[in-house]
Prior knowledge:
By secondary structure, the protein is of the alpha+beta class. Helices cover 56% and strands 17% of the residues. It is built from twelve helices and eleven strands. The protein has helices at residues 7-33, 39-65, 73-80, 83-110, 114-122, 142-152, 159-168, 217-280, 284-302, 312-322, 339-358, 394-404, and strands at 127-131, 137-140, 174-178, 184-188, 193-203, 206-215, 326-330, 362-370, 373-380, 408-412, 418-424. The chain has a six-stranded antiparallel β-sheet, sandwiched between helices. The protein has a five-stranded mixed β-sheet with strand order 7-8-9-11-10, with helices on one face. The longest helix has 64 residues, at 217-280.
Amino acid sequence: MTDVPTIPYSWIGITALLLFLAGCAVLVYALWLRRLRFVPLIAAATVLSYLALQGAIIIVFAPERGYLVSDDPLAWCLASLPVGLVFGLLLGFGLLLGLGFADLIRLERQQITPMSVKAATDSLPDGLCFYLPGGRIVLVNETMQRLCQTLTGEDLANAERFRRRLYDDETLPVQRQAAEDGVRVLKTADGLAWAISESEAQYHGRPVFLLMASDVTELLQKSDSLRKLREKLASLNRQLTEYYRDIAALTTQKEILDARVRLHDEMGADLLMMQQYLIQGCKPGDQEKIEARLRRSLSFLKTQRAEPSRDEIRRICDTAEQLRLHVCIDGDVPDTEPQRHILATALHECMTNTLRHAGGDTLKMTITQHDGQLHARLTNNGVQPDGPIREQGGLKALRTLTEQAGGKMTVSVHPRFSVCLELPKEVDHAISRFDRG
């Protein structure tokens, strides 16, 4: 075995070198993933590739050094094997390394590993930094790293120092804004807004801190837009409330005018009755009716026109007194809107119904407050309706106004006719269903 062709063993050496390097890389990768069950096979393939590399080197360079291949046991064993078999063994080693590497990749994708955790956190839009007491970083993702580089111009090396700078360093190019639950909002020079929060947990009996930065730029922009929209709607609601008051005032004046027209017609009938009484006489009961009608008409005519009150409820009560209707309010009328306006609208509608349909002379409104709600109940002493009330006109408008303010309205006829309102104590304006939240 003194004359061994060296060219085939040169290719064997190159192949063995490549397999040895690949085996070392796969072995390190398996150790990094802590998949120890693959280590023996990968190590065996790597060692055999290394031995084949050493034998090939000896065979190739033996003639130049002046000694026989048979002088080295490793080279003699390799040279004694057929070249095709050696290439077949090396191919088997390569296939073994390839299968081991593919299995490691498959396991990494199917199971949670430190690398998969890092890759997952790097894909998050929020910045995360887990660290131990003293600032030693356990895990930090790319978003937090970029934020630290943007604000400080340095890489994130100590989490506690970076946290202190976020909260207290006035040299950072940020605008600080306090939020709820200890969250700080930082607005950077590039127009982004970050919500900085922190929490603590226990891991194997040791405290681990989490510093998190969430991008809230879009949220703040929508909040500002919503605030401006609410201010605009609030202004519109105040204008509508004034319009409702003017409508109520005009309606009241119309009711007074209609009452005066009816009174004019009734006085004509009263004069005819008096003429008949003076000429022909009448029954004793008719005389009392004539006197009552005359007193009512004369009382209304003698009422001086007073300066109209700007307060809706006061104006309605004054009108009712002119129409000989006694209004009794039991409870405190709220000063806030739209509750006061809704109660005034209900009082006006019930006053009209009492005079026009029930024929009563007393209207009572009872106001109570409990469980964060305002309750109002309106009744009269007139003729009670025979059946259910069909809501239309004023009652329908009153229900719409009540529901727009987030309240409820109930109309009942048993045991007597009543209108019950339930309103929230805190409502800004008359159509505040568009302004709540």
